[in-house]
Amino acid sequence: MREDGLKGTGLVKELLRNEGIRALWKGNVPAEGLYILYGASQFTSFTMINKWFLHFQDQNHFSVSQLTQLLLVGGATGFISTFVTYPFDLLRTRLVAHESRNLLSIKDTCKSIHALDGIKGFFFGVHPTLLSVVMSSGVFFWSYSLARDAAEEINKRSHGKLWGVEAMCGFVAGVTAKAITFPLDTIRKRMQVLRGGRASQMLIDHWRSYGLANFYRGFGVSVIKTAPTSAISMAIYEYSISSMRAMKGSAESRL
After folding, report:
1. What does each C-alpha distance from 153 to 28, 120, 146, 198 come to in angstroms?
2. Using the 8-state DSSP alphabet, how is residue 61 labeled?
3. Which DSSP string corresponds to 110-153?
4. Which of 109, 198, 202, 203 has the fewest CB atoms within 10 Å, i.e. is most exposed?
5. What value does the CA radius of gyration of the chain take, rounded to a whole number of Å?
6. pLDDT by residue (tens digit) across 180-201?
């Protein structure tokens, strides 16, 4: 983990000079596995947990507001998805942090982690990560709902429909969630590279050594990656749900 204050463009130039063009794709294979599994488990668990929680409220004769439900269900969704995919996240970070033109083998890296630390080695940094993602997922679905409500209000006033509203709301939600939880993301990556340590102590040491601003180093690059992904994911999710409902309604009308 670099602490020399190198900016984004300078970092890219140094990376290309010292490690070559392939360095920009370090960790891409475990990252692909992470994104596919995370996306699948995120939306599947969200739908299942949301249905279960609604049923639980009906059985116990109580209810919570929609925003509260989104915070709770979103947090639970993030917890499950993160825990399932965390070894891929750690492996990606280890491969990216290796400063050499010679790329690390995924197989050899897995063997090395297991030999040094056992199974727990694949979960270094999982505690701040779970806290970060539970907060991030809850805030994401909460802010997405608020953005959708605002968009619907604009639609009513303008007597039309905003184009790409799902993508725009997903973008806003992605930026909001990332901004709130990014400091925990920084601690997670440090723990992954440094092979553990206490998250609370690392947080204090990082604050004393580098200050608040350092917790947001790399935030711009992270948002450039995360926000469009959130926009596309929510647009596809909403479109898929709408299409399946339309198909179901069409099939029922023919019966």
Report:
1. 41, 49, 11, 46
2. T
3. HHHHHHHH-GGGGGTTHHHHHHHHHHHHHHHHHHHHHHHHHHHH
4. 198
5. 21
6. 888 878 877 777 667 656 767 7
